[in-house]
Protein 1
Amino acid sequence: MSDNNINNIDNSINNENKSSNYDAKTIAYNLAKKIYELDSNVYESVGSELGRVFIGDADKCLDKLSALIYTNPHGYLLRSEVALVGNMARTIKDKEAKSKFMRQYNDILNEIAELPHGFGSVDILDTSISELNVSNFHRNNNDNRMIICISRTEGSAGTDIGFALADKLRLNYYDAEIFKDLVIRKDAEKDARWKSKKIDLSHEMINPEKARRFSRNHGLPANDAAFFNESEILRELAEKEDFIVIGRCADVILKNNNIPHVSVFITAPVQQRARRIMELEKIPYSKALKRLVKLDKKRERYYKFYTNNIWGQAYNYDLCINSASYGIDEAVNLILRVINRDK
Amino acid sequence: MSDNNINNIDNSINNENKSSNYDAKTIAYNLAKKIYELDSNVYESVGSELGRVFIGDADKCLDKLSALIYTNPHGYLLRSEVALVGNMARTIKDKEAKSKFMRQYNDILNEIAELPHGFGSVDILDTSISELNVSNFHRNNNDNRMIICISRTEGSAGTDIGFALADKLRLNYYDAEIFKDLVIRKDAEKDARWKSKKIDLSHEMINPEKARRFSRNHGLPANDAAFFNESEILRELAEKEDFIVIGRCADVILKNNNIPHVSVFITAPVQQRARRIMELEKIPYSKALKRLVKLDKKRERYYKFYTNNIWGQAYNYDLCINSASYGIDEAVNLILRVINRDK
């Protein structure tokens, strides 16, 4: 390639840069003009007591607005300015004028969306989470898996909501009691396997009972063994069926094993929960309050210990629901709507 | 009334108690028998490796089960036992047998629901909250009010979700920037009113500028005045229009003023939010992280100061959404489904 050619390419690149630079500024200025004019027209039409958005010298306003569009230091500033014009346009009484201005407003929003940086919008989606989120799966009809993990504070009716949901969706239902049962059966299976091995330990200095327990618990303390047995059961269940599971750190276990699910945390204001326990258990309010605080602390510690996450923090779940705002039946309907199973 | 008559009434009351007592125990025993028999039949049909739910001497099982139904010390125990039978029945391969057993299972659930204490279910609904919750209003088509309060952690795209939602629902959109603007205008209005009073202060030892500021701020410090002015604006807006409002403790202000709304808290894991800010602002991760922690702390303090509530705790909102699980577009769709406006 001759030097001449290189120079030509350089020039053309420079020209392109300059012209695209020039174009971007022109686009920004033209858009600013559209927004400014819409603001003037809307103000005239509404005769608003709130006044117009862009006040003072028109040229200065246009310069400021087009700089905002062109440089976009904070997308939200432009968004707020434009939203103000839109808010005002919506108050116009004359239907024809209103619909004309709202059309212009939507055109402006579309033009902004087409800008390279728009409102400076960057999505927050975490694909590693969202791809496991079954409530996103309505976009893909092939995958009908449905595992719902419900965590809940004491007295929030989370288990009642879970059970009612399982009943409506005809899904299996697993809670702490059922898991206890499943773990006992699993232990019995392991013991049976251990016995069937018929290893002769008489020549070793090992207590056979201890050896059996060691085999059953993978050498772990009983509590940890229970947790790991539950995790194993949960993974096995997820391979063969859909279900609803209450607590048991199931959300984290499933996430760590890349098993699609939706995690829901259910809670309610503490007074409301204490009142409910009081009614259910026929105990005084103070005792109900004490019990729920104690049980919640226990769950918090358990969750922290096995997952290193903070229990009940909204960012650890797909969704949190205040059951006092909805009640049991409506909370069930709400979850059905969220997971697109309300039809 | 003669003593005789009183005795007769006493006797009849006693008999009634006895007979209703007897009936309740009989009902409990018959129901226990149905559950026990369903368990046997399901076990036989499924040949489950997990074994049957009720093991050992049939009479003892029935006594235990009917006592559980009759006394219902903890509704959840009965629920778990029954759920286990249902879970097993759902694994039956033979479709005809499965549907027969599931019908029997549902009959049992219905019978339990008809018991005076059922599963010991007491609703968690707080009518003072739920009656203000617009997402419950689909049951009542007459009221089409729609005010949505969005609170959000920094970087969670909560404002983007709010703006996109406002655009989809054609609702006005109010954020901090717009509120600042509205407060300035409100101050200007108040100043104008103050001036129009034309009170002669020259004979008093009052600085007219101070007096003007006092009138504008109700004698409050500037920060508090801004908050109360915003509250006033919010109440005025709620009287005449539907809208989406970001932050500003709007959820608590509306609740305290008995104005129907739905409150949504949007957040995401901190790493995901920091990454997003990094991308948006073209700053290093560490700086993005610092900024979001600082801004969240500021919001937490503001919320605590003006509402005495803990910001971001799920029980303070109707709903919390993890935006990293859904992304902006899908979070908007999710909220539309929740408030029944997705059709």
Note: The mean pLDDT of chain A is 82.
Protein 2
Amino acid sequence: MVLFFIGLGLADEKDITVKGLEAVKRCSRIYLEAYTSILLVQKEKLEKFYGKEVIVADREMVESQVDAILHDADKEDVGFLVVGDPFGATTHTDLQLRAKALHIPVRVIHNASIMNAVGTCGLQLYRYGEAVSIVYFTDSWRPDSFYPRILANRQRGLHTLCLLDIKVREPSLESLARGRKVYEPARYMTVNTAIEQLLEIEQDQKQGAYGPGTLCVGVARIGSDTQQIVAGTMAELAEIDFGPPLHSLIIAGETHVIEEEMLAQYRCQPSDRS
Amino acid sequence: MVLFFIGLGLADEKDITVKGLEAVKRCSRIYLEAYTSILLVQKEKLEKFYGKEVIVADREMVESQVDAILHDADKEDVGFLVVGDPFGATTHTDLQLRAKALHIPVRVIHNASIMNAVGTCGLQLYRYGEAVSIVYFTDSWRPDSFYPRILANRQRGLHTLCLLDIKVREPSLESLARGRKVYEPARYMTVNTAIEQLLEIEQDQKQGAYGPGTLCVGVARIGSDTQQIVAGTMAELAEIDFGPPLHSLIIAGETHVIEEEMLAQYRCQPSDRS
């Protein structure tokens, strides 16, 4: 009858909305999209909370088994759970378009995502420019498309939210070359790695988009009880231990008085350093 | 014990998160911030759903009666409800800083806001530049600080989210001049008024930031059952009736194939016109 896209919010099973939970209870099948972000709790905790089974949908499944996901969705309700907000990532557009083509009604239940929850760090949301993604460098590939974007934001005095890479259940390139998929262990980029890569690219590009003295805010596990927010220079934050995932980094643009007051409460102290 | 900032999400009483609702149930006093945004349901519906009284806090109250709001918050839980996400607006920063100065623990419960839910229209969130506010013109004041920002976004091919003015329980300028406050009726800017003002400013500035033929998306009541999303040129959208508040407008930058596929389902038809 309906394909629900249900945002789960940021941290645990109780971040779902009351409306979202009601939709979950109506659904015959529930998929959990588990590759563009992660919730900070295990699937079993969700299943216990919902009182029903949750099918984990990895990238391969969502990209190649759309028909299975949509099977009978014209006769019964199907739920597609997404960490954060359903349209934080572009990944689910295809599923939505396919459902519409099959005349299956689609309903979206929104929730917080890092794109708006980052406002909690004290830098004001309407003063952010374009967001960027920082992906893991490999021996042969150092993607730096973020650089001109950060530069343009900084030239306009705007903050930049850097979304840090997540590698979940992706086959290793080596195994693909051998024709037999072997999955690499999950990896979540830390603030420290992000800063290291950023500074490497600044050294190549030398246009002064930022440097070791640039004010940044590192955030970890936003919305959870163990949330961590630390403001400091890139050099300072490079030494801070932010603990388990997920991490994000904000490169500050020009700051206003009220933003500075907010950041002051999060300024790093020597004791924060690892 | 704790001052909770609780995001209510976008549309109705069931958009609160399970975690947020649990916090509401713990609180001795509940304030509803009612001037930077509005929920699409009445206070009484919230009270019935929560099983307790909700105190509406207008701008004057939040700005002048912080002590009353924080009274005894070191001994009992107090909740401050905000439509959308608590830090979508800058308005609550002061309350948070005051609580911290009094050593009252602050806890934030996030939710969807227009800043991330707008992703549902099909233009991808990471391709938005700086957001702008469009405020009502008066006879003597036509604020146009949005113009260079939209221009800069468009020059970089980025989309611009335009947040439209809300006037709730604000004393009229005339009454302030007479020394006795009279409150004006609430007003919520429509997509139509926003486009009219935007085009007026383009005529003054003539830098080609946008024009009647620029692709835009008008959205109304996002997250509710009556949600409306229409894509079209500024000239086309100026003629569409988007119905009751709240409205927002997105000025598209360069669009990618997948964005165009998403927008195609929302393209305005002649029958949409009022």
Note: Chain A touches chain B through 56 residues (CB under 8 Å).
